[in-house]
Amino acid sequence: MSAFDAGKRAIGPVVLLLAWETAAQTGVLPARILAAPSQIFLTLGQMVASGEIIGNMLVSLQRVATGLAVSLTLGTALALAAGLSRRGEVAVDSTMQMARTLPFLGLVPLFILWFGIGEFTKIALIAFATTFPMYLTLYSGIRGIDSKLVEAARLFGLSYPELVAHVILPGALPSFLVGLRYSLGVGWLSLVAVEQINATAGLGYLINNARDFMRTDVIVVCLIVYSLLGLGTDLLVRALERHALAWRPSFIKE
Amino acid sequence: MQTLSHDLARLRRQTARAAQPAAFEPAQVPPGAAVRASGVTKRFGANVVLDDLHLEIRAGEFVALLGRSGCGKTTLLRALAGIDRVTSGTLQVPGALAAAFQEPRLMPWKRAWRNVTLGLKIDAPRERARQALAEVGLAHRENAWPATLSGGEAQRVALARALVREPQLLLLDEPFAALDALTRIRMHALILQLWQRHRPAVLLVTHDVDEAVLLADRILVLEAGRVAADIAVDEPPPAAPSAPGSRACAAACSDCWASSSTRGGPDMSTSVLRLPSVTAPAYDLDSLAFAALLADLSREFGAGAAAHDRAGSFPHENFDRLHELGLVSLTVPRHLGGGGATLAQAARVVAAVARGEPSTALVLTMTYLHHASSRNAARWPRHLLERVATDTVRDGALVNALRVEPELGTPARGGLPATTARRTPEGWRISGRKIYSTGIPRLTWLAVWAKSDDAEPLVGSWLVHRDTPGIHVVETWDHLGMRATGSHEVVFEDVLVPLDHAVDVGPAGARAELDPALLLWMSVLLSAIYDAVARSARDWLALWLRERVPANLGAPLSSLPRFQELLGEIDTLLFSNRTLIESAAAGRVDAADAFRVKYLVTNQAIAAVQKAVELIGNPALARNNPLERHYRDVLCSRIHTPQNDTILVNAGKAAFAALAPQPHDTTTHATST
C-alpha cells in the first residue's frame, strides 16, 4: 500500500526528469542553458572518481565548521549573558538586535576592505551570519522558561548555580537546538556567497569556474552537493535532538 | 536537608527584611504552633490584597483556606512559602516547609524520581525517591518522563516531592483543581492518608467548599484580605457520609460567604461528597455525583478491557480502584462497615463496571451476592460471616462459591460433589477439584461445595481461605468470552480448615431451598452485566454507522433505512431489557419469576449484539473492532446457572401445574369453548 503510494508520488519527478532529458537530447534545451540529467550524473561520477568534488567539499565543510564554531561560542555566551542577568541584557541585547538587521551580504565589501580577500574574511562572514540565530533562539529560550518551574525550584531549595544547571539550561535546550539548525542552514547559505570571493578551492570556486566555462553540469553537481550537505547536517542535529530531548512528548517511545 | 533548610531560611529572611517589624526567625515559632502570622499586609500599588491578617496554625493541624478568586488566598500562601514578600507584618513558619501547586510543576526534562529529589542533598536519593513514590502509589513510574504521566499521576509525584522533605508545614495551592472528579476523590483519600502518616501542618488553599469540609480540621474563609470566618470542623476526617456536622458546616461556610459578598455566592446546592474511605463507603448512591463517578469508572475500566481480553489476564488494577473507592464492600451491611446498598444501587454499579470491563463486573457480582445473601447471614457462624465482611471492607477481599467439578458438571442439575471434607481431630481435610472458579486469581475466601466423609454425608459449603496450604490453581481458563475472569481450575489437597468452617451444610438428601431474595439479586446483577455488554456493542455500532462513509454511497451508513431499522431494533430490545432490570431491581417482579428476567434480558442482549454482527459484516468480526469482543462476552450469558432450558422447563411445568387440577377432564374444555 505505502510502496504503491510512494510509487505514485514518484511519478511527477520522474516525468519531469524524462521531459528534461528528452528536451536536452533533442536540442530543445541546449547544454549551455542546462545540461541533460544523464550528463550531470556522468559528471558527478567523474568528479567523485577524480577526487575533485570530495577535496573541494572538504574545504567548504571546514569553512562552515570553523565559522559555526566561532558563532556557537559567541552566540551562546552572549545569550547566556543577556538571558541570565538584567545587566547583561542591557549591555548585549539592544546591540545584538540592531546588528542582526544588517544585511550581511552588504557587509562583504567592507569585510574585504578590512580583512582582505583571504580565508579570514570568508570565515568571519559565516560566523557573523550564524551568530544571530544562535543568540536569538537561546536568549528567547532562557527567557521563555516557565517562571512557575523556577519558583518551584527555588522553593525546593535549589541554589542559583543549581537553578541554571537543572532548570534553565535544560529548559532552554530545545530552543538552542532550533537555533543550531537554523544557524546551519544560514551557514550553508552564506558559504555560497562568500566562496564567490576569490576562492581557489571549495564548492563556490568550482561553481565560479564552471560558470566561466559554461559547464552547467558542474554547476548542478555542486548544487546537489550543497543540498546534500545541508540535509546531512540537519539530520545530524535531529539525531542530537532525539537524544538530548528524549523527555519531550514527541520523542517519547513507550 | 540542612542546605535545604538553609536556603529556605534565606528565602524567608528576604521576606522578613521587607516585613515591619522584621521579627522573622523560624526559631521563634512557639512550640505547638506551625504558622503564626500577625498584622500581615500586602499591597500591590494601591490595591490591598492582604489587610492586617492574623492567622495561627497548630502543628499537625489541617486547615483549609477558602475564598473566591482574588481574595488573597494565593498571595498569603506565597508569602508563607517565602516566594513573595509582604508589605508589613510578622510571619513565622517552620524551617521545613514544602508546597504543591495547582499545576504539578515537575521539570519535564527530569524523570519522576529525579523530580522527587530535586534540590535534596541526601545519601541514596534514588532509594528515598522510590519510597516516597511508593507512598503515593507510583513506585512503578519512577523512571517515567513527566510528559507521560496523567494529571493525577503528575500531581502525586508533586506530592511525593513535597513529602520527601519531611515538612512541618505543607502548603497546598488548589492541588486538585485541575483534576477530574474521580481522580480528585482519590487524591483526597491520598492526602488524608499521607497527612495521617506524616502529620505535617497543612494549609490547603481551595475554592471548593466540599473539599474544605471533607479534608480540614478548620476552615478559614478569606474575604477581602482578612479572615472573615474561622470554622472548626467538629468531626475528624474522614467521617461518615451523612454526618450532620459536615452539612452544617458547609451551610455555615455558605452563609458567611453570602453575607460578606456583593455578588451571589457559589452554588451551594451541590451535595457534600464525602470521602470514600476504606472503612466507610460514603456516597449518596443515588446522587448525580455518584452517577458521574460511575461514568468515569466505566471509561477508565474500558481503556484496559481489550488488553485483558487478548491476554486473558486478570484485571487486578480494576479491583484496586474499586477498593479505593470503597465499592467492593458495597453490599456488606452497614453495621459491618459496608455500603448496605439496595439491589437497584448494586445493579447500577455492576452495570457501570460491566460497561467498562464485564469480567470485573462478574467477579464483583459474586462478592456482592455473598454479602447480600440473607441465607448466608442466617446460617453461617456469626464470627465467620463478620470476618469475611471485615476482610472485604478493609482489604477489598473477594469471595466466591466454588461449585462446578470436572466429573459432575454443575451441581445445579443434581448429584453429589466428588470433593470430600474428611473429619479429623484437628479439623476438616478437604480434597477435590473445582473448575470455573471465577475470580480465583484474586479471591480471598472460597465457599467450597463438598460432601463430608460421614456415614450419612453432609453436603454444602465449607469456607476456605485462599492462602491455606494445599490449594493449587491450574490455569485452564481460556474461554471464548469473559476471558479476564480468571475462572481457572482449583485443586484441593488435604486442605485443613477448622471444624466450624462447615458454614452451610446439611444432610445429602435434604436439598435446601435457595433464598428467593438472592435469586432475584442474582438474576438482576447477571442481567445487568450482559445488558451492559450489549449496550457497549450498541454504542460502538451507532458511532460506527455514523462515521462510516462508503465511497460509493457518499453519505454515512446511518443515512440508510436498513441501518436505521437495525439500530431501532437493537434499541428496542435494550429498552425492554432496561424495563425488565429496573422493575425487577425495584422489587416489582415476583422472586419466582426472577429467572425469567435473566432469560429474557440475556437472550435479548445476545440478539441485539448478534443483529449488529450479522448486518455490518466483516468489520464486526475484525479483532481491532470491539464489537467481536462484546459478542464473545455476551454469549457467555448462557453459561450461568440456571441455564435457559432449566428456566423454561420449570416455567412450563409450573404453567401446566397451574392449568387445571385434572389435565384429562375434557368437560372443562368443552364447556369453556
Provide an overview of this structure.
The complex is a heterodimer of chains A (254) and B (673). Chain A is 79% helix and 0% strand. In chain A, α3 packs across α4 (86-99). The two termini of chain A are 26 Å apart. The model of chain A has no long low-confidence stretch (mean pLDDT 89). Chain A is an all-alpha fold and 254 residues long. Chain B has 3 domains: 2-259, Rossmann fold; 397-512, Butyryl-CoA Dehydrogenase, subunit A, domain 2 (Beta Barrel), CATH 2.40.110; 516-658, Butyryl-CoA Dehydrogenase, subunit A, domain 3, CATH 1.20.140.10. In chain B, strands 10, 11, 12, 13, 14, 15, 16 and 17 form an 8-stranded mixed sheet that branches. A 6-stranded mixed sheet of chain B has the order 5-6-7-3-8-9, with helices on both faces. A 3-stranded antiparallel sheet of chain B has the order 2-1-4, with helices on one face. The radius of gyration of chain B is 30 Å and the shape is globular. At the A-B interface, α7 and α8 of A face α1 of B.
Name a few traits of the molecule.
heterodimer, A: 254 residues, mainly alpha, MetI-like fold, 10 helices, globular, B: 673 residues, alpha/beta, Rossmann fold, Butyryl-CoA Dehydrogenase, subunit A, domain 2, Butyryl-CoA Dehydrogenase, subunit A, domain 3, 3 domains, 8-stranded mixed beta sheet, 21 helices, 18% strand
Broad structural category of chain B: alpha/beta
Write the CATH homologous superfamily of the largest domain in chain B.
P-loop containing nucleotide triphosphate hydrolases
Q: What order do the helices and strands of chain A follow?
A: HHHHHHHHHH
Main beta sheet of chain A:
none
SSE layout and pairing:
The complex is a heterodimer of chains A (about 250) and B (about 675).
Chain A: H1 2-25, H2 37-50, H3 52-84, H4 86-99, H5 108-115, H6 119-143, H7 147-155, H8 160-194, H9 203-212, H10 216-244
Helix pairs in contact in A: 2-10, 3-4, 3-6, 3-8, 3-9, 5-6, 6-8, 7-8, 8-10, 9-10
Chain B: H1 2-18, E1 33-44, E2 47-58, E3 62-66, H2 73-81, E4 88-92, E5 97-100, H3 112-116, H4 125-135, H5 151-163, E6 169-173, H6 181-198, E7 201-206, H7 209-215, E8 218-223, E9 226-232, H8 244-259, H9 288-311, H10 316-324, H11 343-356, H12 358-372, H13 374-379, H14 382-395, E10 398-402, E11 420-424, E12 427-437, E13 443-452, E14 458-465, E15 471-474, E16 488-497, E17 504-507, H15 516-547, H16 561-585, H17 594-616, H18 618-621, H19 626-635, H20 644-659, H21 666-672
Parallel strand pairs in B: 3-7, 3-8, 5-6, 6-7, 10-13, 11-13
Antiparallel strand pairs in B: 1-2, 1-4, 8-9, 11-12, 12-16, 13-14, 14-17, 15-16
